[in-house]
Amino acid sequence: MKEKISSLYVPREGSHKGENGKVLVVAGGRRYHGAAVFCILGARRFADMVYFMPGERDEKLIFAVSGIPEAIVVGEMPEADCALAGAGVGDVPLDLGGMRRKYGKIILDGDAFRQVEKKELRGLLITPHEGEFRGLFGIDGSPEHVRAMAEKWGCTMLKKGHVDVVSDGKEIVLVRGGNAGMTKGGTGDVLAGLLCALYAKNGAMEAAVAASRANKKAGELLFKEKGYAYCASDVAEKLPEAMKWR
Predict the structure, then answer these.
(1) 119: exposed, middle or buried (Cβ count in 10 Å: 0-12, 13-18, 19+)
(2) For 197-238, what is each residue's pLDDT tens digit?
(3) Which residue, 110, 92, 131, 106, is CA-closest to 188?
(4) Global pTM value
(5) Which DSSP helix (H) or strand (E) runs through 172?
(6) 186 to each of 181, 193, 229, 245, how far by Cα in Å?
(7) Which of 79-97 are b and which e, b meaning 16 or more Cβ less than 10 Å from the residue's Cβ?
(8) Within a 13 Å sphere around the CA of 70, how many CA atoms are in the beta-carbon half?
(9) What are residue 107's DSSP bridge partners?
């Protein structure tokens, strides 16, 4: 068990729009507008194109997202390198089968864990917190349990917590850092959006470790400036500086 820094994809000179990552965010609903916004804010500086499909059609949700000029609202699944689904969708069913047919890289987050069966996790990247991990697997999210469940169900996992645990069923990476200011609502959605953008052009383990470390680093930088008086939007804004740890 260790911490590591990975070498991430770097856009090449002469590349064109879309070549450095296109992502789809399926999030939000009538109750949780902010989840979608935070996911998009986490992704928008690290992917060329950020498509957004609401978990359920809601005027207030579309209005909230319309304030982010980088978000491209779509009614059907576009071409993308990676799809993130589940944050704030509530009980609205996700079309996981359709996403599997369309995308080679899929991340499940948030409310998706109340819909998915364990056998459907194979090949996915999932981001449960401790309560969601227990709900899925019936055991605590210790590093060895995270590794064992990732191995058993054929997925890669970023288990969020005071110490994040990242595993593909073989390797375990522990990511420490952050502070109690990151208990604010939405910081996990920011992490999911960043992860989606990084996963678009990197491997699952590399993206998960990098996203986890950057998210925690952003919290640490904000603590130096504001103490605990910061929020999820601040974390998203701090991510570019936090990524300099590489």
Answers:
(1) exposed
(2) 999 999 999 999 999 999 999 999 999 999 999 999 999 999
(3) 110
(4) 0.95
(5) strand 172-175
(6) 12, 11, 14, 23
(7) ebbbbbbbbbbeebebebe
(8) 20
(9) 84, 125
